[in-house]
Amino acid sequence: DKYRRLIEEMGENLAVFQHDMDGTLTYITQSVKHIAGIGSEDVMGKKLFEVIPWTDETLASLPDNLDKLRSTGTLTAVENSFRHPDGTIRSVSINAHVVHDDDGVPLFVEGLLENITERKAAERAALQSSLRYKHLIEDLGDNFTVYMHKPDGSIEYVSPGAERMFGFTPEDAIGKSYRAEVRWTDASMRILQGNR
Fold first, then answer.
1. Would you state the pLDDT for residue 93?
2. Separation CA 62–CA 121 (nearest Å)
3. 165, exposed or middle or buried, with CB in 10 Å at 0-12, 13-18, 19+?
4. 98 phi and psi, to 5 degrees?
């Protein structure tokens, strides 16, 4: 009983579930209501993939994921999306494994459904921001060069203007030392090395 209470109190973004080998839910925590907008009483005795309105992409990957679960006995961080009753698209990560008896006969599947909607939104926002700044930098033209390097001096990014200014393409410079790639003047090298 104390374990059930512990599981039930894991938080609203995590749902623990069990289903038999044909996919029929035998247990799911109340947090599924927060995650999927469907009460646990509404999904018990049904198949999770039939009661949640999964996206076409998720449904297309379902056979491969089920095959993997049957063949390897485990699924790790499988990301799926569905339409929440409020109309938004939500994302979850599923971890699951098959539980066997002492003779190796599969008994049931148990797993964890994690709401990753906010994390996915943050990843998309970061990507959009990164692309926006990349386009701004690349639209500066050939008279400017913007670059980023690691602490060891190896170039991580250089804008297309580097070719006109320094004679190397961005592709040729990535991973090389900016100190070696650029033909610096003696005065510039002294500044780069911390000497004025």
1. 94
2. 23
3. middle
4. -85, 135
Strands (E), the chain: 14-20, 25-28, 74-83, 89-100, 106-115, 147-149, 155-158
pLDDT at 111: 94
Cα torsion 115, 55, 110, 33: sign? positive
Residue 98's DSSP bridge partners are: 109
CA dihedral 36, 42, 45, 46 (to 10 degrees): -50
DSSP bridge partners of 91: 81
Phi/psi at 149 (nearest 5 deg)?
-140, 160
Which residues are CB-contacts of 175 (< 8 A; sequence separation ≥ 6)?
Answer: 154, 155
Question: Which token pair is 23?
Answer: 């996919």
Map tokens 């190896």 to a residue: 154
Q: How far apart are CA 95 and CA 66, in angstroms?
A: 12
Cα distance between residue 113 and residue 137, in whole Å: 40
Which one-letter amino acid corresponds to residue 32?
Answer: V
Name the residue among 36, 24, 21, 11 with its Cα closest to residue 97. 21
User: According to the model, what pLDDT value does residue 151 have?
Assistant: 85
- Cα–Cα distance between 115 and 105 in angstroms, integer? 31
pTM: 0.63
